[in-house]
Specification:
Helices cover 50% and strands 12% of the residues. It has 496 residues and is of the alpha/beta class. The chain has a five-stranded parallel β-sheet with strand order 2-7-10-1-11, sandwiched between helices. A two-stranded antiparallel ribbon has the order 3-4. A two-stranded antiparallel ribbon has the order 5-6. Helix 2 packs parallel to helix 4.
C-alpha cells in the first residue's frame, strides 16, 4: 500500500509558465476584451514581455533587472483593472487586486501592507495546487474506482482479503496468553477448494460492478462514505510576530486541530462519492512542500499586484495634517514592498524584488506628484487612460467576447426568448451612456450596465411568459424605457 500512496511524476515545467507572446500579440489578445486604451495596452505588453525576456537571461544578470512598475491614471470604468486582470490570465501569473485604502500605517488598527504579499502567495499556492491536481487526475481515477467498489462491495478489496486470510494472532496481557473465542470453538479447516471458489465469486462480482460503474448504471445508488475534517497544523507566524490576519487564521487552525480530525459518515450517491473520493485521493497524492516551492518561485518571478485607488492615499498639495499623516504613512509602508523586501508568509519567505506592481487611480482631486517622491520613483511608467465616448460604448456593447449584448442574449435564451438589437438601438444606448456620464458622475463603461438593466427590466421579469418569442429592441423601445431621462434635463436625479 505504501507504493500506491506515492505521487506520479509531475511535469514541473508546466507549473512555471513562460509567456511566448510578442507585445503585438499581447495587445491583440487584450483587444478581444478591452476596447480602446491603446497606449495602456502597449505599455503593459512591453512590461510583461520584459519579464519573459529576463527569465531567459543568465542568473547573474537576472537579479539586476528590476520590473518597470506601472502607474495608470484615468477615470473609473475605463478598463484599468480589466487590463491588469487579463494580463495576468495571459501568462497564468498569480494576480491580486487590492485597494490602497484598506491599509494603514504601523501602529494603526487595520491591515498592514505586507498582507498583500501573503494574499498573493496564497493565490499562487492555490493555483499551483489546482494545476498539479489536474495533472494527477488521470492517474487517480483507478484508485477512486477501487475505493468505490470497496464501498459497494465491502470485504471484496485486496486489503480485506489479506486481513481475512491472515492467521489470527493470540491475544495477551502482560505477556500472558488470553484464550480467544476461536480457541474454545472446534478448529475447522475450510477446504482450499471452497476458499478459492469464494475468492473467484467475489472477484467475478467485483468485476461486474466495475463494468456497471464504468457504464454509469450505479450513479444514483447510495453509499456511505467517510468524510474527514481538515487537520492542518497552525502557522508558526502567530508566535513569530505575524499580522492580525495570521493570528486569526492561526487561532482557527488551532481550534480545528483541538476539535480533532475525526471523520464522520455521510450517505451520498455514487456520483457524489466519486467526487469526494477524488478530492481525498488527490489531497493525499499532492506534496504540499513541492506545491509551496513552485508557488513561491512563480510568485517571485511572475506575480502581479494591482493596487487600486492609490490616489486616495496621496496627500494633496504636499500638506500633511490630521488624518493625512496616516495616508503618508501608508505610502512609506508600501515603499519597501515595491522596492523589494522579504515578507514572511505561511508558505515561506517571499522576495518581492521582481513582483510587478501596477497602481491605478483617477487622480481627480490629488495629482500623481502628490505621492511621496520615493514612491513616485518606483512607478517609472505612467499611462494616461482616455475617457470613453459614444463610439467606444458602441464597440463595448458588441465587439468583446464578453460583450453586454451577448450576455443578455444568452441569459434570455435560457428562457426561450430571442433578443434582437437594431443598429439604431445600439447607437441610442451608446449616446445615452455618454450623455449621462457627461452630465453627472463619469463612471465609464459601468454606465452601460445600468442602462441595459433599465431597458430590459420588464423583459427579464416576464421572460417565462414570452418563451418561443423573438423580441426586437429598437430605438423607439429604448426611448420608451428611458423617456423620463430623455425628457428631464436634470439627468443626475435619476438612477442612471
Amino acid at each position: 500500500m505504501e507504493n500506491e500512496t506515492k505521487s506520479p511524476k509531475i511535469d514541473e515545467s508546466k507549473l512555471l509558465p513562460v509567456l511566448d507572446l510578442t507585445p503585438k500579440q499581447i495587445v491583440e489578445k487584450l483587444d478581444t476584451y478591452i476596447i480602446g486604451q491603446k497606449n495602456a495596452k502597449r505599455c503593459v505588453a512591453v512590461a510583461l514581455r520584459n519579464r519573459t525576456r529576463r527569465l531567459r537571461l543568465d542568473a547573474d544578470i537576472q537579479d539586476e533587472i528590476a520590473p518597470k512598475n506601472i502607474l495608470m491614471i484615468g477615470p473609473t470604468g475605463v478598463g484599468k483593472t480589466e487590463i491588469a486582470r487579463r494580463l495576468a490570465k495571459l501568462c497564468n501569473a498569480p494576480f491580486l487586486k487590492v485597494e490602497a485604502t484598506k491599509y494603514t500605517e504601523v501602529g494603526y488598527v487595520g491591515r498592514d501592507v505586507e498582507s498583500m504579499v501573503r494574499d498573493l502567495m496564497a493565490v499562487g499556492y492555490n493555483d499551483v495546487k489546482r494545476e498539479m491536481q489536474e495533472q494527477l487526475k488521470e492517474s487517480c481515477k483507478p484508485r477512486v474506482e477501487e475505493d468505490l467498489l470497496d464501498l459497494l462491495l465491502p470485504g471484496s478489496g485486496k486489503k480485506a482479503k489479506k486481513e481475512k486470510n491472515a492467521p489470527a494472532l493470540p491475544m495477551s496481557i502482560f505477556g500472558m496468553s488470553v484464550p480467544s473465542e476461536n480457541d474454545n470453538a472446534e478448529k475447522k479447516e475450510i477446504p482450499q477448494e471452497e476458499k478459492e471458489a469464494d475468492c473467484e465469486q467475489l472477484k467475478s462480482t467485483r468485476e461486474k460492478f466495475r463494468q456497471m460503474l464504468r457504464d454509469g448504471v450505479l450513479e444514483e445508488r447510495e453509499v456511505e462514505v467517510s468524510v474527514e475534517r481538515s487537520n492542518r497544523m497552525p502557522s508558526m507566524q502567530i508566535i513569530a510576530g505575524g499580522s492580525m490576519d495570521d493570528l486569526e487564521s492561526g487561532m482557527q487552525d488551532i481550534a480545528n486541530m483541538l476539535s480533532g480530525g475525526r471523520s464522520h459518515k455521510k450517505t451520498v450517491t455514487v456520483k457524489e462519492a466519486r467526487q469526494i473520493l477524488l478530492e481525498k485521493n488527490l489531497e493525499k497524492m499532492t506534496d504540499p512542500d513541492k506545491v509551496a516551492d513552485i508557488a513561491k518561485k512563480r510568485v517571485e518571478q511572475m506575480g502581479i499586484i494591482f493596487i487600486d485607488e492609490i490616489d486616495k492615499i496621496a496627500v494633496r498639495g504636499g500638506q500633511s495634517s490630521g488624518r493625512d499623516v496616516s495616508r503618508e504613512g501608508v505610502q512609506r509602508d508600501i515603499l519597501p514592498i515595491v522596492e523589494g523586501s522579504n515578507v514572511n508568509t505561511r508558505y515561506g519567505v517571499v522576495d518581492t524584488t521582481h513582483i510587478l506592481f501596477v497602481a491605478a487611480g483617477a487622480f481627480s482631486v490629488a495629482a500623481p506628484s502628490d505621492l511621496i517622491p520615493e514612491l513616485q520613483g518606483r512607478f517609472p511608467l505612467r499611462v494616461q487612460l482616455d475617457s470613453l465616448n459614444a463610439q467606444d460604448f458602441k464597440r463595448i456593447l458588441i465587439e468583446p467576447k464578453n460583450a453586454l449584448i451577448k450576455q443578455y442574449k444568452s441569459l434570455l435564451a435560457t428562457e426561450g426568448v430571442t433578443l434582437e438589437f437594431t443598429d439604431d438601438a445600439i447607437d441610442r444606448l451608446s449616446y445615452l451612456a455618454e450623455e449621462v456620464n457627461r452630465k453627472s458622475e463619469n463612471i465609464g463603461a459601468r454606465r452601460l450596465q445600468t442602462i441595459m438593466e433599465t431597458v430590459l427590466e420588464d423583459i427579464s421579469f416576464s421572460a417565462d411568459e414570452h418563451s418561443g418569442e423573438t423580441i426586437s429592441i429598437t430605438k423607439d423601445f429604448v426611448d420608451e424605457k428611458l423617456k423620463d431621462v430623455i425628457e428631464d434635463q436634470d439627468i443626475s436625479r435619476y438612477i442612471l
